[in-house]
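Subject: sequence -> C-alpha coordinates, single chain

Hey, anyone have a minute? Need the predicted structure for the following. Not urgent.
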Amino acid sequence: AGGGRLMDKFRKWYYNAAGFNKLGLMRDDTWYEDDDVKEAVRRLPEHLYNERMFRIKRALDLSLKHQILPKDQWVKYEEDEHYLEPYLKEVIRERLEREEWNKK
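Reply:
Had a minute. Here:
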Protein backbone atom coordinates (compact mmCIF):
# COMPACT_ATOMS: atom_id res chain seq x y z
CA ALA A 1 0.00 0.00 0.00
CA GLY A 2 2.87 2.38 0.84
CA GLY A 3 4.45 1.85 -2.58
CA GLY A 4 1.19 2.74 -4.29
CA ARG A 5 0.96 6.06 -2.46
CA LEU A 6 4.57 6.81 -3.34
CA MET A 7 3.93 6.07 -7.02
CA ASP A 8 0.84 8.25 -6.96
CA LYS A 9 2.83 11.13 -5.46
CA PHE A 10 5.50 10.65 -8.13
CA ARG A 11 2.87 10.64 -10.91
CA LYS A 12 1.38 13.89 -9.58
CA TRP A 13 4.83 15.46 -9.29
CA TYR A 14 5.76 14.38 -12.83
CA TYR A 15 2.42 15.59 -14.18
CA ASN A 16 3.02 19.06 -12.74
CA ALA A 17 6.69 19.07 -13.74
CA ALA A 18 5.77 18.42 -17.38
CA GLY A 19 4.12 21.85 -17.44
CA PHE A 20 1.42 21.34 -20.06
CA ASN A 21 -1.25 21.63 -17.36
CA LYS A 22 -0.06 25.18 -16.63
CA LEU A 23 -1.16 26.06 -20.17
CA GLY A 24 -4.58 24.46 -19.63
CA LEU A 25 -3.80 21.31 -21.61
CA MET A 26 -4.78 17.77 -20.73
CA ARG A 27 -2.45 14.82 -21.24
CA ASP A 28 -4.33 13.63 -24.34
CA ASP A 29 -3.91 17.09 -25.92
CA THR A 30 -0.15 16.59 -26.01
CA TRP A 31 0.11 13.36 -27.98
CA TYR A 32 2.13 13.39 -31.19
CA GLU A 33 -0.40 13.29 -34.01
CA ASP A 34 0.49 10.23 -36.02
CA ASP A 35 -2.12 8.65 -38.32
CA ASP A 36 -3.77 6.74 -35.47
CA VAL A 37 -4.11 9.83 -33.27
CA LYS A 38 -5.40 11.92 -36.19
CA GLU A 39 -8.10 9.33 -36.86
CA ALA A 40 -9.02 9.15 -33.16
CA VAL A 41 -9.33 12.96 -33.04
CA ARG A 42 -11.49 12.87 -36.16
CA ARG A 43 -13.85 10.44 -34.39
CA LEU A 44 -14.31 12.60 -31.30
CA PRO A 45 -17.81 13.90 -30.63
CA GLU A 46 -18.11 17.55 -31.65
CA HIS A 47 -18.12 18.94 -28.10
CA LEU A 48 -14.92 17.04 -27.16
CA TYR A 49 -13.24 18.12 -30.40
CA ASN A 50 -14.19 21.78 -29.81
CA GLU A 51 -12.95 21.66 -26.19
CA ARG A 52 -9.66 20.14 -27.38
CA MET A 53 -9.18 22.80 -30.06
CA PHE A 54 -9.94 25.57 -27.55
CA ARG A 55 -7.34 24.23 -25.10
CA ILE A 56 -4.70 23.87 -27.83
CA LYS A 57 -5.31 27.36 -29.27
CA ARG A 58 -5.24 28.92 -25.81
CA ALA A 59 -2.00 27.09 -24.99
CA LEU A 60 -0.40 28.31 -28.25
CA ASP A 61 -1.45 31.87 -27.47
CA LEU A 62 -0.07 31.65 -23.92
CA SER A 63 3.15 30.13 -25.21
CA LEU A 64 3.65 32.91 -27.75
CA LYS A 65 3.14 35.47 -24.98
CA HIS A 66 5.49 33.55 -22.63
CA GLN A 67 2.68 33.30 -20.05
CA ILE A 68 0.94 30.59 -18.06
CA LEU A 69 -2.57 30.45 -16.66
CA PRO A 70 -3.33 31.55 -13.10
CA LYS A 71 -2.78 28.58 -10.76
CA ASP A 72 -6.53 28.14 -10.11
CA GLN A 73 -7.01 27.43 -13.86
CA TRP A 74 -4.28 24.77 -14.17
CA VAL A 75 -5.55 21.29 -15.07
CA LYS A 76 -5.18 19.16 -11.94
CA TYR A 77 -3.88 15.59 -12.10
CA GLU A 78 -7.15 14.29 -10.63
CA GLU A 79 -9.26 16.21 -13.18
CA ASP A 80 -7.32 15.19 -16.29
CA GLU A 81 -9.64 13.03 -18.38
CA HIS A 82 -8.21 10.54 -20.83
CA TYR A 83 -10.91 11.51 -23.33
CA LEU A 84 -8.99 10.43 -26.46
CA GLU A 85 -7.78 7.06 -25.19
CA PRO A 86 -10.92 4.97 -25.92
CA TYR A 87 -11.06 6.29 -29.49
CA LEU A 88 -7.34 5.70 -29.99
CA LYS A 89 -7.56 2.13 -28.68
CA GLU A 90 -10.38 1.43 -31.12
CA VAL A 91 -8.44 2.93 -34.06
CA ILE A 92 -5.34 0.88 -33.21
CA ARG A 93 -7.41 -2.29 -32.78
CA GLU A 94 -9.01 -1.74 -36.20
CA ARG A 95 -5.65 -1.01 -37.85
CA LEU A 96 -4.05 -4.15 -36.40
CA GLU A 97 -7.07 -6.20 -37.47
CA ARG A 98 -6.83 -4.74 -40.98
CA GLU A 99 -3.09 -5.48 -41.14
CA GLU A 100 -3.71 -9.04 -39.99
CA TRP A 101 -6.47 -9.46 -42.56
CA ASN A 102 -4.22 -8.15 -45.36
CA LYS A 103 -1.55 -10.72 -44.52
CA LYS A 104 -3.91 -13.53 -45.54
